[in-house]
Amino acid sequence: MSIPPPLRVRTFQLDDSGIISFETDFSAINVSAGPSSAGSFPYLNSSGKLDFSFIPGSGLLLETNGVLNTVQSTLNLISGSNIALTSDSFGGVTISASGTISTSFANISSGVNLSSIMTVGSGGSPPGSAILSYSGTGIINANEIGTINVNGNLPSHAGQLLISQPGNTTALWADPIVPPPTKNLYVDGSRADVYTPDGSVLKPFLHIMDAINQVATNNDNSSVPYAINISSGIYSETISLNDARLVELTFIGEGAEVSSGSTHSIEAINNNNLLAVKFVGMQFISSAGVDTHSLTFSSTTNNTNFLAGTLRNPNGLWFVNCVILGTADVFVQDAGSVICDSCTLTVNFTCNNVFQIVLRYCTLNQTGGSQVLAVNSNGGNPKPTGWTQTYGQLVGNICAIGETVDAGSRIDNVHSNISGNITVNGLVTAQHCNMFGTVTVNSGGTFTEKGANGHSTVTVNAGGTWNAALQLGAASLMLNGATKISSGSGSPSGVVTGSPGDLYLNTAGGAATTLWVKESGTATTSGWVGK
């Protein structure tokens, strides 16, 4: 190895302030095993050996916005990224960035962002179709959705919905209230072709009871409501709902007529599981036979929910657009609710210990017979859960039938035309009604008018109460079943029948001829004296 004259080289290293922080003398020599690449400059220590520990560092570190770059050997500058390189008088270079930088979502790994917003734009296919998704066991957490705080709320099982009620600032996971889908069965008694009925549209049952028996066989009516769709025609059978597996049924008739002769058209006896039954567009015809009840719904067990209604059908027993004809009656006992909407009835309607009876826009006894709507509170058993009195409400009806209301019961008549006679032992109100029959109020009974008019006679017996309307339409008023007050135009002599003590008001007026008193003659037209 030959050693040429030494070449001394002094190196300096400046810190960021331009002050020399490192100074070393090195000799450059020519080594036979020399550097591997041209232009390399080896350094020797004092022993004449290569020693790279003396190679000074550059003192330069690559940073972006004050954060060290992970890879110090690479600086990638992107056009339009607002990254600036600025040299100073000491030979240093400053790298700075300003403004905002857009990047792919794939470039985001982790970190804390206090204010930025990621916006889904209108681009893409389809427009605005950005998706925040996960794979494997990945989890996406959020503590607020649309200003609603959901922090800490986790569903307890699959299928729950995050629900926030109006006005709330928090939300909870809850099971959706979704009524089970109604199962449909079909009946068509007119089918004459040969097939095996299964209750489907294409293979309907031939009898209504076949469909009812299928519901009982399925044994799921406690959780699944059934609708039995009945084609038009005459069905000579009794609809029996006595099976305890029957809970909620709807019968939809397309003009279907149930004609049972002298037996029940419908019976639901002692099936305390029966909560709701609805009949739509059906006609029931029967005649009095061994059993005088055409439609019978009753229980012998006290404090049950018999016909109390469900979430889907809150009305219990419900007739809509139905016709009930014949000489046998409708009998309901120990039921939660009985509703008739837009129905025609020409039969007696008896309700014993029923929580609520409502007749809306019905025609009752359009033939003008002597049928009666009777509401009774027996006070004994059976009676439904929570029962206090049998309560009836008649709204907008045309009633030619009479009403009997026993002690502890009540009927409210609203906007109805009532031509039958009314016997009041309980509570009866008439609000804006035309009442053309007689009203008899017995001991313990109360008859209250609110704008009612048109009744011919109101008889209030001892112990009875009549709260008269401001405008009376009665032709006469009977007090205690004996004394009558009547009115008319002209003298009552020879015209108006009365007994001693009766009063007559002459609407034509005149001195000593306006008030007339019956002083003699029982049930005669004579004996009237003007006062």
Folded structure, characterized:
By secondary structure, the protein is an all-beta fold. Among the domains are: 7-54, no CATH class; 184-420, 3 Solenoid (Pectate Lyase C-like), CATH 2.160.20; 482-531, no CATH class. It is 2% helix and 35% strand. The longest helix has 11 residues, at 208-218. It is elongated and about 140 Å long. It starts with 6 loop residues before the first strand and ends with a strand. Residues 1-12, 20-41 and 54-58 have low confidence and may be disordered.
How do the helices and strands line up, and which of them pair or pack?
Blueprint: E1 7-14, E2 20-28, E3 63-64, E4 67-68, E5 83-87, E6 93-97, E7 144-145, E8 148-149, E9 161-163, E10 172-174, E11 183-187, H1 208-218, E12 226-230, E13 233-235, E14 239-240, E15 248-253, E16 256-261, E17 266-269, E18 276-280, E19 283-286, E20 293-298, E21 317-320, E22 323-326, E23 329-333, E24 337-341, E25 344-345, E26 349-352, E27 356-360, E28 363-364, E29 372-376, E30 391-395, E31 398-399, E32 402-405, E33 410-414, E34 417-418, E35 422-424, E36 427-431, E37 434-435, E38 439-441, E39 446-450, E40 457-460, E41 465-467, E42 476-479, E43 483-488, E44 503-506, E45 515-518, E46 528-530
Parallel strand pairs: 11-12, 12-15, 13-16, 14-17, 15-18, 16-19, 17-20, 18-21, 19-22, 20-23, 21-24, 22-25, 23-26, 24-27, 25-28, 26-29, 27-30, 28-31, 29-32, 30-33, 31-34, 32-35, 33-36, 34-37, 35-38, 36-39, 38-40, 39-41, 40-42, 43-44
Antiparallel strand pairs: 1-2, 3-4, 5-6, 7-8, 9-10, 42-43, 44-45, 45-46
